[in-house]
Amino acid sequence: MNAVLQAEGLGKRYGKRWALTGCTLDIPEGRIVGLVGPNGAGKTTLLNLAVGQIRPTAGSIRVLDGAPASGPEQLAKVGYVAQDTPTYSSLSIGDHLKLGARLNPRWDDALAHERIRRLGLDLGHKAGKLSGGQRAQLALTLGIAKRPELLILDEPVAALDPLARREFLQGLMEAVAEHSMSVVLSSHLVSDLERTCDYLVVLVDSRVRVAGDVDELLATHHRLSGPRRDTLPEDQHVVSESHTDRQSTFVVRSDGPIHDPAWTVGQIGLEDLVLAYMSTTPRRPTLEAIR
Protein backbone atom coordinates (compact mmCIF):
# COMPACT_ATOMS: atom_id res chain seq x y z
CA MET A 1 0.00 0.00 0.00
CA ASN A 2 1.29 3.46 -0.89
CA ALA A 3 2.01 6.01 1.81
CA VAL A 4 0.45 9.46 1.91
CA LEU A 5 2.99 10.74 4.46
CA GLN A 6 6.49 9.50 5.20
CA ALA A 7 8.81 11.04 7.78
CA GLU A 8 12.31 9.85 8.64
CA GLY A 9 14.19 11.35 11.60
CA LEU A 10 12.10 14.50 11.15
CA GLY A 11 12.89 17.45 13.38
CA LYS A 12 12.07 21.16 13.71
CA ARG A 13 13.96 23.55 15.97
CA TYR A 14 13.04 27.08 17.00
CA GLY A 15 16.15 28.68 18.42
CA LYS A 16 17.40 26.28 21.09
CA ARG A 17 14.06 24.51 21.48
CA TRP A 18 13.14 21.43 19.46
CA ALA A 19 9.40 21.35 18.72
CA LEU A 20 9.81 18.02 16.94
CA THR A 21 12.76 15.65 16.91
CA GLY A 22 13.51 12.17 15.60
CA CYS A 23 10.00 11.63 14.24
CA THR A 24 9.71 8.57 11.98
CA LEU A 25 6.31 7.76 10.51
CA ASP A 26 4.70 5.99 7.56
CA ILE A 27 0.96 6.65 7.02
CA PRO A 28 -0.87 4.46 4.47
CA GLU A 29 -3.26 5.88 1.90
CA GLY A 30 -7.03 5.54 1.98
CA ARG A 31 -7.35 5.83 5.77
CA ILE A 32 -8.84 8.26 8.26
CA VAL A 33 -5.87 8.72 10.57
CA GLY A 34 -6.22 9.98 14.12
CA LEU A 35 -3.13 11.84 15.34
CA VAL A 36 -3.23 12.16 19.11
CA GLY A 37 -0.85 13.23 21.85
CA PRO A 38 -0.50 15.65 24.77
CA ASN A 39 -0.06 19.39 24.30
CA GLY A 40 3.47 20.11 23.15
CA ALA A 41 3.96 16.66 21.64
CA GLY A 42 4.66 18.15 18.21
CA LYS A 43 1.37 17.40 16.43
CA THR A 44 0.85 20.87 14.96
CA THR A 45 4.53 21.14 14.02
CA LEU A 46 4.30 17.81 12.18
CA LEU A 47 1.22 18.92 10.26
CA ASN A 48 2.71 22.31 9.42
CA LEU A 49 5.74 20.50 8.01
CA ALA A 50 3.43 18.22 6.02
CA VAL A 51 1.68 21.13 4.31
CA GLY A 52 4.90 23.04 3.71
CA GLN A 53 4.19 26.00 5.98
CA ILE A 54 7.55 25.43 7.67
CA ARG A 55 10.72 23.59 6.66
CA PRO A 56 12.43 20.83 8.66
CA THR A 57 15.62 21.42 10.59
CA ALA A 58 16.55 17.75 10.43
CA GLY A 59 15.42 14.61 8.67
CA SER A 60 12.99 14.39 5.78
CA ILE A 61 9.28 14.35 5.00
CA ARG A 62 7.42 13.39 1.85
CA VAL A 63 3.71 13.80 1.21
CA LEU A 64 2.02 11.93 -1.64
CA ASP A 65 5.49 11.03 -2.91
CA GLY A 66 6.59 14.66 -3.18
CA ALA A 67 8.18 17.40 -1.12
CA PRO A 68 5.54 19.46 0.73
CA ALA A 69 4.47 22.63 -1.11
CA SER A 70 7.10 22.01 -3.78
CA GLY A 71 4.95 23.40 -6.59
CA PRO A 72 1.39 24.07 -7.79
CA GLU A 73 0.70 20.41 -8.56
CA GLN A 74 1.80 19.32 -5.10
CA LEU A 75 -0.17 22.11 -3.41
CA ALA A 76 -3.31 21.05 -5.27
CA LYS A 77 -3.09 17.53 -3.84
CA VAL A 78 -3.30 18.57 -0.17
CA GLY A 79 -6.15 20.27 1.69
CA TYR A 80 -5.60 21.85 5.10
CA VAL A 81 -7.93 23.05 7.84
CA ALA A 82 -5.88 24.77 10.54
CA GLN A 83 -6.54 24.66 14.27
CA ASP A 84 -8.62 27.85 14.40
CA THR A 85 -10.57 26.92 11.21
CA PRO A 86 -9.60 30.28 9.63
CA THR A 87 -12.04 32.25 7.52
CA TYR A 88 -12.14 35.90 6.46
CA SER A 89 -14.66 37.63 8.71
CA SER A 90 -15.44 40.42 6.21
CA LEU A 91 -16.12 38.04 3.31
CA SER A 92 -19.42 36.29 2.69
CA ILE A 93 -19.75 32.54 2.29
CA GLY A 94 -20.21 33.10 -1.43
CA ASP A 95 -17.02 35.18 -1.55
CA HIS A 96 -15.12 32.31 0.09
CA LEU A 97 -16.36 29.90 -2.58
CA LYS A 98 -15.37 32.30 -5.37
CA LEU A 99 -11.91 32.69 -3.80
CA GLY A 100 -11.59 28.91 -3.52
CA ALA A 101 -12.45 28.54 -7.20
CA ARG A 102 -9.79 31.09 -8.21
CA LEU A 103 -7.04 29.59 -6.08
CA ASN A 104 -7.55 25.86 -6.59
CA PRO A 105 -7.23 24.21 -10.02
CA ARG A 106 -9.20 21.12 -8.93
CA TRP A 107 -12.01 23.15 -7.38
CA ASP A 108 -15.45 21.47 -7.46
CA ASP A 109 -17.88 24.37 -7.44
CA ALA A 110 -20.97 22.17 -7.58
CA LEU A 111 -19.77 20.22 -4.56
CA ALA A 112 -19.09 23.40 -2.59
CA HIS A 113 -22.49 24.95 -3.31
CA GLU A 114 -24.36 21.70 -2.65
CA ARG A 115 -22.64 21.28 0.69
CA ILE A 116 -23.44 24.86 1.73
CA ARG A 117 -27.07 24.27 0.71
CA ARG A 118 -27.28 21.04 2.74
CA LEU A 119 -25.86 22.87 5.76
CA GLY A 120 -28.64 25.45 5.49
CA LEU A 121 -26.21 28.36 5.15
CA ASP A 122 -26.87 31.53 3.17
CA LEU A 123 -24.23 32.46 0.59
CA GLY A 124 -24.67 36.12 1.51
CA HIS A 125 -23.86 35.69 5.21
CA LYS A 126 -20.55 37.16 6.36
CA ALA A 127 -18.15 34.66 7.88
CA GLY A 128 -17.67 36.93 10.88
CA LYS A 129 -21.36 36.53 11.75
CA LEU A 130 -21.31 32.73 11.72
CA SER A 131 -21.19 30.54 14.81
CA GLY A 132 -18.03 28.58 15.59
CA GLY A 133 -19.61 25.41 14.23
CA GLN A 134 -20.71 27.14 11.02
CA ARG A 135 -17.24 28.61 10.46
CA ALA A 136 -15.75 25.16 10.96
CA GLN A 137 -18.18 23.73 8.40
CA LEU A 138 -17.27 26.48 5.94
CA ALA A 139 -13.56 25.74 6.40
CA LEU A 140 -14.25 22.02 5.89
CA THR A 141 -16.24 22.80 2.74
CA LEU A 142 -13.30 24.76 1.33
CA GLY A 143 -10.95 21.88 2.14
CA ILE A 144 -13.19 19.24 0.57
CA ALA A 145 -14.14 21.24 -2.54
CA LYS A 146 -10.45 21.61 -3.32
CA ARG A 147 -10.75 17.86 -4.12
CA PRO A 148 -7.46 16.94 -2.45
CA GLU A 149 -5.94 13.50 -2.30
CA LEU A 150 -5.01 14.18 1.33
CA LEU A 151 -7.00 16.33 3.74
CA ILE A 152 -5.16 17.44 6.90
CA LEU A 153 -7.12 18.81 9.86
CA ASP A 154 -5.39 20.23 12.93
CA GLU A 155 -7.78 19.98 15.90
CA PRO A 156 -10.62 21.62 13.94
CA VAL A 157 -13.27 20.81 16.57
CA ALA A 158 -11.31 21.68 19.72
CA ALA A 159 -13.29 24.87 20.42
CA LEU A 160 -16.71 23.55 19.38
CA ASP A 161 -19.57 22.40 21.60
CA PRO A 162 -20.47 18.67 21.50
CA LEU A 163 -23.31 19.10 18.97
CA ALA A 164 -21.19 21.17 16.59
CA ARG A 165 -18.34 18.63 16.94
CA ARG A 166 -20.67 15.77 16.05
CA GLU A 167 -22.06 17.62 13.03
CA PHE A 168 -18.56 18.49 11.81
CA LEU A 169 -17.29 14.93 12.12
CA GLN A 170 -20.43 13.55 10.51
CA GLY A 171 -19.86 15.88 7.57
CA LEU A 172 -16.26 14.74 7.36
CA MET A 173 -17.20 11.05 7.28
CA GLU A 174 -19.83 11.69 4.62
CA ALA A 175 -17.28 13.51 2.48
CA VAL A 176 -14.77 10.68 2.82
CA ALA A 177 -17.46 8.17 1.84
CA GLU A 178 -18.49 10.21 -1.22
CA HIS A 179 -15.05 11.31 -2.44
CA SER A 180 -11.86 9.30 -2.48
CA MET A 181 -9.38 10.96 -0.11
CA SER A 182 -7.10 10.19 2.78
CA VAL A 183 -7.49 12.15 6.02
CA VAL A 184 -5.15 12.99 8.89
CA LEU A 185 -7.11 14.37 11.84
CA SER A 186 -5.28 15.74 14.86
CA SER A 187 -7.30 15.85 18.08
CA HIS A 188 -6.91 15.50 21.82
CA LEU A 189 -10.52 14.27 22.08
CA VAL A 190 -10.13 10.51 21.84
CA SER A 191 -13.90 9.94 21.79
CA ASP A 192 -14.07 11.86 18.50
CA LEU A 193 -11.27 9.78 17.00
CA GLU A 194 -12.97 6.58 18.12
CA ARG A 195 -16.05 7.47 16.05
CA THR A 196 -14.21 8.54 12.91
CA CYS A 197 -10.73 7.04 12.58
CA ASP A 198 -9.56 3.62 11.43
CA TYR A 199 -5.83 4.26 11.89
CA LEU A 200 -4.11 5.70 14.97
CA VAL A 201 -0.83 7.52 15.59
CA VAL A 202 0.17 8.42 19.15
CA LEU A 203 2.84 11.12 19.35
CA VAL A 204 4.55 11.80 22.70
CA ASP A 205 7.56 14.08 23.19
CA SER A 206 7.77 14.41 19.39
CA ARG A 207 8.25 10.67 18.92
CA VAL A 208 5.82 8.09 17.56
CA ARG A 209 4.92 5.77 20.43
CA VAL A 210 2.56 3.57 18.44
CA ALA A 211 0.94 3.57 14.99
CA GLY A 212 -1.39 1.12 13.33
CA ASP A 213 -4.85 -0.03 12.36
CA VAL A 214 -7.28 0.70 15.21
CA ASP A 215 -8.91 -2.75 15.17
CA GLU A 216 -5.52 -4.46 15.19
CA LEU A 217 -4.24 -2.30 18.04
CA LEU A 218 -7.30 -3.05 20.16
CA ALA A 219 -7.00 -6.79 19.42
CA THR A 220 -3.33 -6.98 20.44
CA HIS A 221 -3.39 -4.86 23.61
CA HIS A 222 -4.54 -6.28 26.94
CA ARG A 223 -4.79 -5.27 30.57
CA LEU A 224 -3.28 -7.83 32.96
CA SER A 225 -4.04 -7.85 36.69
CA GLY A 226 -2.65 -10.30 39.20
CA PRO A 227 -0.15 -10.98 41.98
CA ARG A 228 2.81 -8.63 42.22
CA ARG A 229 5.60 -9.24 39.70
CA ASP A 230 8.13 -6.95 38.06
CA THR A 231 8.91 -8.78 34.81
CA LEU A 232 6.93 -10.38 32.01
CA PRO A 233 7.85 -12.71 29.14
CA GLU A 234 9.66 -11.04 26.24
CA ASP A 235 6.69 -11.56 23.88
CA GLN A 236 4.54 -9.36 26.12
CA HIS A 237 5.68 -5.81 25.41
CA VAL A 238 4.94 -3.62 28.43
CA VAL A 239 3.27 -0.32 27.56
CA SER A 240 2.48 0.83 31.08
CA GLU A 241 2.48 -0.66 34.56
CA SER A 242 1.42 0.07 38.12
CA HIS A 243 2.06 -1.83 41.33
CA THR A 244 0.91 -2.11 44.91
CA ASP A 245 2.59 -4.24 47.54
CA ARG A 246 0.58 -7.29 46.45
CA GLN A 247 -0.79 -6.60 42.98
CA SER A 248 0.49 -5.57 39.56
CA THR A 249 -1.45 -4.16 36.63
CA PHE A 250 0.09 -4.02 33.16
CA VAL A 251 -1.05 -2.82 29.77
CA VAL A 252 0.80 -5.02 27.29
CA ARG A 253 1.02 -5.61 23.58
CA SER A 254 1.09 -9.25 22.55
CA ASP A 255 0.36 -10.91 19.22
CA GLY A 256 -0.60 -14.21 20.81
CA PRO A 257 -3.00 -15.29 23.57
CA ILE A 258 -2.00 -14.98 27.20
CA HIS A 259 -2.46 -18.31 28.99
CA ASP A 260 -0.89 -17.59 32.39
CA PRO A 261 -3.66 -18.48 34.89
CA ALA A 262 -2.24 -16.03 37.42
CA TRP A 263 -3.45 -13.13 35.32
CA THR A 264 -6.90 -11.68 34.86
CA VAL A 265 -6.86 -10.60 31.21
CA GLY A 266 -9.13 -7.74 30.18
CA GLN A 267 -9.88 -5.92 26.95
CA ILE A 268 -8.76 -2.33 26.57
CA GLY A 269 -10.61 0.54 24.90
CA LEU A 270 -9.08 3.12 22.60
CA GLU A 271 -8.98 5.86 25.23
CA ASP A 272 -7.22 3.62 27.74
CA LEU A 273 -4.79 2.50 25.05
CA VAL A 274 -3.92 6.09 24.16
CA LEU A 275 -3.56 7.09 27.82
CA ALA A 276 -1.28 4.12 28.48
CA TYR A 277 1.11 5.24 25.75
CA MET A 278 0.90 8.89 26.77
CA SER A 279 1.38 8.46 30.50
CA THR A 280 4.61 6.52 30.85
CA THR A 281 8.05 6.05 29.39
CA PRO A 282 8.39 2.50 28.07
CA ARG A 283 11.00 0.18 29.55
CA ARG A 284 11.83 -1.04 26.03
CA PRO A 285 11.70 1.12 22.87
CA THR A 286 8.14 1.17 21.59
CA LEU A 287 9.01 2.06 18.02
CA GLU A 288 11.15 -1.04 17.66
CA ALA A 289 8.31 -3.16 18.99
CA ILE A 290 5.82 -1.94 16.39
CA ARG A 291 8.03 -2.34 13.32
Overall description:
Residues 5-230 form the ABC transporter domain. By secondary structure, this protein is α/β, with parallel strands linked by helices. The protein folds into 2 domains: 3-205, Rossmann fold, CATH 3.40.50.300; 219-290, no CATH class. It is 33% helix and 30% strand. The protein is built from 10 helices and 13 strands. It has helices at residues 43-50, 72-77, 93-103, 109-118, 132-145, 162-178, 190-196, 214-220, 270-279, 286-290, and strands at residues 3-14, 17-28, 32-36, 58-63, 78-81, 150-154, 182-186, 199-204, 207-213, 221-227, 237-243, 247-253, 264-266. Strands 5-6-7-3-8-9 form a 6-stranded mixed sheet, sandwiched between helices. α6 (162-178) links the parallel β6 (150-154) and β7 (182-186). α4 (109-118) packs antiparallel against α5 (132-145). The longest helix has 17 residues, at 162-178. The model is unreliable at 282-291 (pLDDT under 50).
Keywords:
single chain, 291 residues, alpha/beta, Rossmann fold, 2 domains, 4-stranded antiparallel β-sheet, 13 strands, 30% strand, disordered C terminus, ABC_Transporter_VariousFunc, ABC transporter ATP-binding protein, ATP binding, nucleotide-binding
Written as H for each helix and E for each strand, in order along the chain, the element string is: EEEHEHEHHHEHEHEEHEEEEHH
Record field, number of beta strands: 13
The portion of residues forming beta strands comes to 25-35%
What sort of overall outline do the alpha carbons produce when their principal axes are compared? elongated
Main sheet characteristics: 6 strands, mixed
CA-based gyration radius: 21 Å
Count the domains.
2
CATH superfamily of the largest domain: P-loop containing nucleotide triphosphate hydrolases
Return the average pLDDT rounded to an integer.
90
Q: What is the correct CATH architecture of the largest domain?
A: 3-Layer(aba) Sandwich
**Which regions contain 5 or more consecutive residues with pLDDT less than 50?**
282-291
Figure out the total of helices: 10
Main sheet strand line-up: 5-6-7-3-8-9
Helix content: 25-40%
Structural class based on helices, strands and sheet pairing = alpha/beta
CATH topology of the largest domain: Rossmann fold
